[in-house]
Amino acid sequence: MSGHSKWSSIKHQKGVTDARRGQLFTKLTREIMVAVRQGGSSPETNFRLRLAVQKARDNSMPLDNIERAIKRASGTMEGAALTEMVLEGYGPSGAAILVEALTDNRNRTLQDVRNIFSRHNGNLGESGCVAWLFDSKGLITIRTNELDTEELALEAIDAGAEDVTVENNFVAIYTRLEELEAVRKALEEKDRPITSAELSMVPKTMVELEEKPALQTLKLLDKLEELDEVQRVSSNVNFSDSVLEKYQSPT
Fold first, then answer.
1. N or C: which end of the chain has fewer CB atoms below 10 A?
2. Judgement on whether residues 110 and 222 belong to the same structural domain of the protein
3. Whether residue 110 is found in the same domain as residue 88
């Protein structure tokens, strides 16, 4: 899972420094609204909503925005109907890519995603073509800073985590879906600085790519995530440190 956690870490670093906070809030709002429509407006009884609200708070989304999204979805405010979509495809050299979206226009989102795949040496596939390569897991990320990562890993495992990886400035902690909240709570009680806790599609096996297709795949993932309707993008590529550093370097 190392390549997966390294890419996740980079995305979190980008989220702090990016000028895309408005777009991030749009994605978080959509996730809250769909969670409410599926399971009701009470975070106490709606796990998905509880997770969406916590993610919004993790990203410094104002409380007013969160409450407004819940009201819109529960029918006390006007709001467009959103549909969940999972699109699957292949990147350069056959990398598996899973795209999860929330949209008020399925045809537009399908066309937008298809165009991005085509422009970046990939292609959209049929439903089910790559989903079987991924497992749905909980993912908690923590900035290491001066932390003792071995001690942190042991605490996470003791709390119920399935796997822990250390990548540069982040620790990635993987859990079963039903254990995500419990592991997070246990780490927070030990004053561990949680950067994020979210659902993640984790590849069962990883693939290695040559530098050129790896860089092309990173560009493809980035462009997909820039779409407002796209909530999450997953791939099974194990990106090397050198490829990640080159991708982040100014051109």
1. C
2. yes
3. yes
Per the structure, the complete domain to which residue 221 belongs is given by: 84-132+205-244
pLDDT (tens digit, 9 = 90+) per residue, 179-188?
A: 999 999 999 9
Could you tell me the CA-to-CA distances from 141 to 10, 13, 152, 223, 230 in Å, in that order?
11, 11, 11, 23, 21
Query: What is the pTM (predicted TM-score) of this model?
Result: 0.81
**What domain count does the chain have?**
3
